[in-house]
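Consortium newsletter contribution from the modelling node. Members have asked for a concrete example of what our holo predictions look like. Here is one, prepared for the iron/sulfur cluster complex that several groups have been discussing at recent meetings.
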Amino acid sequence: MANKCEFRTLPDLNLARNRTQSFSFDYQGVTYPESLAKYAKGKTYFIHTYGCQANYRDEEVMAGMLEHLGFKRATEIGNADLVILNTCAVRENAEQKVYGMIGELKKYKTADNSRLFCICGCMVQQKHIIEFITKTFKHIDLIFGTHNITKLPQMLDEVIRRRIRLVDVESSPTKIEENLPSSRLSSFKAFINISYGCDKFCTYCIVPYTRGKERSRLMKDILEEAKELKELGYQEVTLLGQNVNAYGKDLKDGSTFAKLLEEVAKIGIPRVRFLTSHPWDFTEEIVDVIAKYKNVMKYIHLPVQSGSSEILRLMGRRYDAEKYLGLVKMIREKVPDCALSTDIIVGFPNETYEQFLETVELCKNVQYDSAFTFIYSPRNGTPAAKIKDNVSSKDKSLRFRELVKVLEEGISKKSAEMVGKTYDVLVEGASEKNPEMLSGYTEKNKLVHFKGDLSLVGKIVPVKILESHTYSMIGELVK
Ligand code: SAH
Ligand code: SF4
Ligand code: F3S
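And here is the predicted structure:
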């Protein structure tokens, strides 16, 4: 018999839309129930994360709490006492993957009823998803959201002690929490949250609802984290936010992303990156800082979404194709060797073939170094999901393939130009496909495979490029 399900709070998209609530800074850190620490002795956990870097950073905080309690990281999902699925809601296929995994977990529960299964992340910030999961999958013990992950110890403790299933998902954030534990996924590259949430409300996007109001961490707290990482020997940090260039606007203390980036650069970590930049808030000052500091990577992810100004207007992106191209021009003038990557959505409701061709044109014009392309996926509760769409999914797929082909041609050409030259590569580990090779990334985020000793992992080494493929390079270590 499944345990009784208690619904403490359920998310509400209308509440999540609200941007008038105030929030505070909280430096208290996490509290841990003693009974849970006793329970955790000799037990293991496994967190499976889907989606973007914000979710991976949340995984690190959850892992930090669980390890503090005494749980050890399991090697695989199949043998963990506690499993957390950290989910993403950005597109339908992201949610389908999670349902597949929830189904898989059932057999583990049947084999051993004492195992605990939890779901968190963006997907469960939606009420209809929670209703479906709690009704269909009785083997899920705990559902919590993106705004209360630091309550995980209390929630787990309650589920175990009271033998209940529990749903506790808040709609909106009330604070920015500092002094959180963290078990980082890498010992040489790290993500630093600089802001949470998003206020842009692009009409297709669920993120402003699942992640809440845009709120910036204080500059001093971010710099402290960066200094700690530098002392620990980290080679790369990525400043994270849904819109890094809007950083500081809400603080009203004069903080801006340009200032923050400059202060982080001065700390002297060899590689500083940032993700994601919205073209709308991208100021000249930011570009100047990128140009000025050698350790700020000359690589900008600058999602365009569409090359059609009319589609951009319907998407609520607040720039048109001309403005975007102007920004690209300004960046290239100030930072001539800057690599650019992008996100593109194909098949927004009622996109005409001509409008699609404007996207193709823009891509040919910009010459991206890499690109992520997606077929539009209607998201419940967003304005675009209410638009009646007259484009068939077959046409969308055809456009998608046409665009990928154009992008890949351009990217391959750029990659081919790298052959014969030597680049600094931050070594990540053994190559997934061929364990005799190492893999790493250049300053401009090109994946390079080369022969070398595992002792090089976590170091930045010069590699000469011998062969180029669209998405990766083969090189040799320069002695
Ligand atoms: N804040 C970031 C990206 C967040 S989501 C930004 O604005 O760039 C990452 C990407 O997913 C987006 O850039 C967009 O291209 C894509 N995306 C978001 N919602 C989508 C949807 N409903 N359908 C298809 N792709 C979507
Ligand atoms: Fe979504 Fe737009 Fe915010 Fe990016 S800027 S997270 S696409 S609403
Ligand atoms: Fe997905 Fe949430 Fe990130 S919807 S893309 S995990 S902010």
